[in-house]
Amino acid sequence: MPQTLNSIAHQGANGPAMMPIIQGVGRAAAEISYLLRGAVFRGALGAAGGENVQGEQQQKLDVLSDEIFLDEMRSTGFVCAVGSEEQEELQVIEEYAHADYLVLVDPLDGSSNLDIDGPVGTIFSVVRRRSAPDGAPVEADTLQSGREVLAAGYVLYGPATMLVCSVGEGVHGFTWNPNSARFELSHPDMRIPEQGGYYSVNEANADKWLDGLAEKFARMKRETGLGMRYVGSMVADMHRTLLKGGVFLYPADEKNPNGKLRLLYEAIPMGFLVEQAGGRAMSRGGSVLDIVPEGLHQRVPVYLGAARAVDMLAG
Ligand code: AHG
Ligand code: MN
Ligand code: MN
């Protein structure tokens, strides 16, 4: 019998409570993947006409994926609120406002790839609420460092749809099996290879990088001999980095003095997975996981991957 998402219930102290929430992520993933495959026929590609709180053009699929994800978190009965890249404010789930957990999500990551049928993803993490359960959850409940995260993961909508997650007991990858219509364990205990792999960065920004990165980067390339790959979809670039090794970075530059990627929706969940897979997750001056968030939509520079390459860049 293949292992399904139920098996998460047997993983460590957090597994039992996280299993139904990750199953909810799995249901959202199945729906979003179906939506993506038929989007061109339903006129669902292209801009939605609005901007999100970060001033970025929202795609129709960003908005639809966000709705699907929120509905599936509601249906678990264990989530009191969702913080989303696509929503300015925390979305409280009124029916379950007393529940114990909050979920943070980038519902559709890499949306610049949508028009070219490129890979995109969903990124999530789960924290326990801190406010008393008799009132509604508040934004401050989400402002917890990566050390407090109970579970995190991503879905990659590639040739196959994969759900890769951790409840603090290693990183495990499940692949959607279209025959059985469920996620089945395909990549148990993913570990980042210490040698080999690729560097992955938008090198077009190199002359604008801050923090003295250009010199460190040139040395890293010389000394490691790593090859280069860049999709421009963090989930796809990180999935490759986890499986093949090397480093993914989105550093600070003149245009993005705090980097581009969001601490709560991208940096913390991916940093949590990288550390669980035996790698290194750094930001400016320390671990991504030690940063205490100050706001829902905060951005940070990130250097994620195998220790050797990360240390040469972020050290
Ligand atoms: P999103 O689509 O959720 O806004 O995220 C896009 C992010 C991330 O997926 C990727 O690593 C990065 O933007 C690529 O940025 P550049 O186009 O500046 O390289
Ligand atoms: Mn993203
Ligand atoms: Mn997004």
| Helical residues, percent | 25-40%
CATH homology-level superfamily of the largest domain: Fructose-1,6-Bisphosphatase, subunit A, domain 1
Strand content: 25-35%
* Molecules bound to protein: 2,5-anhydro-1,6-di-O-phosphono-D-glucitol, manganese (II) ion
Element order: H for helix, E for strand: HEEHEEEEEEEEEHEHEHEEEH
Q: Label the CATH architecture of the largest domain.
A: 2-Layer Sandwich
The count of domains is 2
Number of helices: 6
Q: Can you tell me the residue ranges where pLDDT is under 50 for at least 5 consecutive residues?
A: none
Number of E-type strands:
16
CATH fold label of the largest domain: Fructose-1,6-Bisphosphatase, Chain A, domain 1
> What oligomeric state best describes the polypeptide chains here?
single chain
Note down, in words, how this protein is organized.
The protein has two domains: 5-187, Fructose-1,6-Bisphosphatase, Chain A, domain 1; 198-314, D-Maltodextrin-Binding Protein, domain 2. β9 and β10 form a beta hairpin. It has six helices and 16 strands. With 315 residues, it is of the alpha+beta class. The mean pLDDT is 96. The protein has helices at residues 15-38, 60-76, 213-224, 234-244, 263-276, 307-314; strands at 47-51, 57-59, 79-84, 91-92, 101-109, 120-128, 151-157, 161-166, 172-177, 182-187, 198-200, 227-228, 246-250, 280-283, 286-287, 302-305. Residues 56, 85, 106, 109-112, 202, 232-234, 250, 260 line the site of 2,5-anhydro-1,6-di-O-phosphono-D-glucitol (AHG). One manganese (II) ion is lined by residues 62, 85, 106, 108-109, 111.
